[in-house]
Design a protein that fits this description.
The complex is a heterodimer of chains A (648) and B (198). With 648 residues, chain A is an all-alpha fold. Chain A is built from 20 helices and two strands. Chain B is elongated. The N and C termini of chain B lie far apart (53 Å). Classes of the chains: A mainly alpha (648), B mainly alpha (198).
């Protein structure tokens, strides 16, 4: 392979990116060296097993990926803003909608949600960390390495270009030669292992580490939704593991899982992909529902309406989500009976979802609503998401779906579900839990700019897509003729995407501004919260709770505040056991990245040799008998005194 | 929660969580193998002119493999029994027997694969062979991983003795080993026996 096959060449946009990436890397290394921060980075971040720091790294990576996926989106909108534009050619457009989809779902939505879960869930259940802190770090590094491997594809070797669903036969070697789709198969596999480990970790954490007295029905709702999501991860991700393994074997070793000529079956890929892919949608949306529930209850100053029905609804949605996958390919030759069954199960999902919508509305009823930024996002979510839900029921009807299957109507629908459902939730969650992570609030005024620009831009971008979709514009079209009459709609939509991007820029500015100037004096409980994460200092100390709280009822902390019982006694302080930092997670992450890279390029000898690194990491981990360390009582007392005052 | 008669591997809270976590991991493994089985059933008759199962399977060899692996599950159980009686040497002996039986199984399976390749059934031949070799290969790779893993644990047991930590690690590895046996029973029934009847 010659050098100009290795690097992607011949496109000024990509050349610019290559130069920018190179300069940024050099700049970062120089800056860290100049500030003498390498040791600090290694000690405090790269080797950390603290769930809060891991959560923050997830969030940081998620925001970065949001930027990358967002730029992809803007490029697509620019290309379709006018008829017959030559800004991107068909090939480049294919690559961009593929990476946009993969990055937004797997490398933006997932890490942002898992990041917030990481920070919040242990605090909400009164635990000192997750069940397996080192595994948690490994999860992060596998995700991060997977994301980076996927991201370099557009400058090294070439991007995948068969869509985020990568249907066979298109995604096979015959129709998609080159290494692009190898990146898809390998990078997602690596990140997927990390996600599966996260799922297992949180299931055990929530089952075994809840504070004394916190029975299942006294658990905060966000913890419930994280629990159900974790179970869905364990149930669904192995299916994707197998599907990607088949894809890798077909592409790298010439097997025939999906090629018709030698007895393979491309429909097998579709079924496996959506058997994972549909639950995946709920994996990202359920924790988001939990965040809205927490925010709405807190800022309505009321307990969550219908808590139990919320729990049952979440469990019901999770169960049904495993039984609807065929609705993604009604038009691909199933019998009428099969289509009808999947149509019914799909429509049934609207029932528990409707229960949740009404519960949120009733939580607000007669509440003293405070229009903080977190609350604004929750309020905007309800109508926008309902539009997504209603159009979803339209798509669920198999007979009608034949009319708008794979049109822009579908694209508009899932953006109306995923952006309000997930992105708005992440924004609400970030504004809400930011002080718990960093000890200062994000600015509310800049936050309003962020909110209005993003929400208006979002509706401007995606509402027109419903109409061009109903008018017959199929998805993934890189251009169209003047005579279609779509130009005004798509032009308006492109303007909307710029407004939305301005909203995102406002968020970034807000983070910068608040980091520099916001007041550090926010106290432990800035929003008058209801759950245990507000019972400890902001930012939360590395041991979380000096004394593990006891819980008598749901929203226990809210009542304890009223009863004046939130203090701790000096005599209750005991040394706290903490896990030690570890180098194995980041080492294993990098090792997987190297092996993955060689596999992408089908350099098998190098891949086999470098997999020795993985073995070394695993063996070192097996022989590691580090028992962690204890924080002495004096140190605890000193840290607690800082924000509680003198302990009794 | 933890009393004197609680088995050693369950004494500490962390060990309890490790064991529960591993059970949940086995749940994920069940999903993984179920997917492999389902895919095999979809593709099993798509031989594309290549050999079908009944043309190449040698039931006698498969039966020997089955006995080797099933016996190794029994001896792994014996090792756990001696671990609980704090009989370190017996435990090590039975673990080594387990590993040898596992290695015997692997040897047979590799020979079986070589035989198939000579018969003209490689992983690239057809949809059937792709699904067959991937299902069997995934199981075989698990056995290989298990042999290496348990060997490493043997060093740790020899060096550190039977402690709360080593016993829980070993118990988890034994769960894994039994799980592979269960998967094999399904492979034996639904791949080989079903394949022989056609």
């Amino acid at each position: 392979m010659s050098l100009d096959e290795f690097f992607v060449t011949g496109d000024p946009l990509i050349l610019g990116s290559q130069i920018a990436i190179g300069l940024t890397m050099v700049g970062l290394v120089a800056l860290i060296t100049y500030l003498k921060r390498w040791k600090w980075l290694w000690r405090e971040w790269f080797t950390t097993v603290d769930h809060k720091k891991i959560g923050i790294m997830y969030i940081l990576a998620g925001v970065l990926m949001f930027f990358r996926g967002g730029v992809d989106g803007l490029l697509m909108k620019a290309q379709t803003s006018r008829p017959e534009l030559g800004f991107l050619d068909a090939q480049h457009y294919d690559e961009i909608f593929t990476t946009h989809g993969v990055i937004m779902i797997l490398f933006m939505a997932m890490p942002l949600l898992i990041g917030i879960m990481n920070v919040v869930v242990p605090l909400q259940i009164g635990a000192r960390d997750v069940a397996f802190p080192k595994l948690n770090a490994l999860s992060f590094w596998l995700f991060f390495v997977g994301a980076m491997l996927f991201n370099i594809s557009f400058v090294i070797g070439g991007s995948p270009d068969a869509g985020w669903t990568s249907y066979f036969p298109l995604a096979g070697k015959e129709f998609t030669p080159g290494v692009g789709n190898n990146y898809y198969a390998i990078a997602l596999q690596i990140a997927g292992i990390g996600t599966l480990a996260t799922g297992i970790n949180f299931v055990v954490t929530i089952i075994k580490m809840r504070a004394p007295g916190m029975s299942w029905m006294k658990m905060p709702i966000f913890t419930w939704t994280s629990f159900v999501t974790s179970i869905l991860i364990v149930a669904a991700f192995p299916i994707f593991t197998v599907a990607l393994a088949f894809m890798s074997l077909d592409r790298l070793f010439g097997t025939h899982f999906f090629t018709v000529a030698a007895g393979g079956d491309p429909m097998l890929w579709l079924n496996l992909f959506w058997l994972w892919g549909h639950p995946e949608v709920y994996i990202v949306v359920l924790p988001a529902f939990g965040m809205f529930s927490e925010v709405i209850a807190t800022f309505s100053r009321k307990n969550l309406f219908g808590y139990k029905s919320m729990v049952y609804a979440v469990a019901g949605i999770a169960f049904l989500s495993m039984l609807v996958w065929v609705h993604h390919f009604y038009t691909m030759g199933n019998s009428a009976a099969v289509n009808s069954i999947f149509s019914l199960t799909t429509i049934m999902i609207a029932i528990p979802t409707g229960v949740k919508i009404f519960n949120w509305l009733f939580t607000m009823r007669k509440g003293r609503i405070e229009f903080s930024n977190a609350m604004l996002w929750s309020l905007a979510f309800i109508p926008c998401f309902t539009i997504g839900g209603v159009t979803g029921v339209m798509l669920a009807m198999a007979a009608a779906d034949y009319q708008y299957h794979n049109t822009m109507f579908l694209v508009a629908h899932f953006h109306y579900v995923l952006i309000p459902g997930v992105v708005f939730a992440v924004f609400a969650g970030l504004y809400y839990w930011w002080p718990k992570m960093f000890g200062f609030k994000l600015n509310e005024k800049i936050g309003k700019w962020h909110f209005w620009l993003f929400v208006i831009g979002f509706n401007m971008t995606f509402m027109p897509m419903f109409f061009v979709g109903l008018d017959g514009m199929s998805r993934r079209m890189y251009t169209y003729s003047e005579s279609t009459g779509w130009a005004p709609w798509l032009g308006f939509s492109a303007v909307g995407s710029v407004v939305m991007a301005a909203g995102f820029a406002a968020l970034c500015y807000n983070i910068y501004w608040s980091f520099r100037y916001a007041s550090r004096d926010v106290g432990s409980d800035p929003w008058n919260g209801r759950t245990l994460e507000w019972a400890t200092a902001s930012p939360a100390p590395h041991y979380n709770f000096a004394v593990v709280p006891e819980v008598d009822r749901i929203d226990d902390f809210w009542y304890k505040k009223k009863e004046g019982k939130t203090g701790i006694k000096k005599s209750d302080l005991k040394p706290v056991h903490m896990p030690s930092n570890s180098w194995t997670p980041i080492f294993l992450g990098v090792a997987f990245g190297i092996v993955g890279f060689f596999l992408v390029f089908e350099w098998f000898t190098l891949a086999v040799i470098s997999s020795i690194l993985i073995v070394i990491g695993l063996v070192a981990n097996s022989f590691d008998y580090d028992d962690g360390y204890h924080i002495p009582v004096d140190e605890l007392e000193e840290e607690e005194r800082e924000w509680r005052g003198e302990l009794k | 929660m933890t009393q004197a008669n609680t088995p050693l591997e369950y004494r500490s809270h962390q060990s309890q969580m490790n064991i529960l976590g591993f059970w949940i991991f086995l749940g994920a493994e069940i999903v993984l193998f179920s997917t492999l089985f389902a895919s095999y059933f979809v593709l099993e008759h798509n031989t594309a002119g290549g050999p079908a199962g009944q043309d190449i399977f040698i039931l006698k060899d498969v039966l020997i493999e089955t006995f080797l692996l099933l016996t190794s599950s029994f001896t792994a159980g014996l090792a756990i029994h001696f671990m609980r009686n704090n009989a370190k040497n017996d435990m090590i002996v039975w673990t080594i027997v387990t590993l040898l039986l596992g290695a015997g199984f692997l040897y047979m399976e590799i020979n079986e694969f070589i035989h198939y390749v000579h018969e003209g059934a490689t992983i690239q031949t057809s949809g059937f062979t792709a699904a067959f070799f991937t299902l069997l290969g995934t199981h075989g790779a698990h056995v290989t991983f298990g042999i290496i893993w348990i060997s490493l644990l043997l060093f740790q047991i020899a060096k550190r003795g039977i402690t709360e930590k080593t016993s829980s690690k070993f118990f988890i590895a034994s769960l894994y080993w039994h799980f592979l046996d269960v998967v094999w029973i399904f492979i034996f029934t639904f791949v080989y026996l079903k394949g022989m009847v056609g």
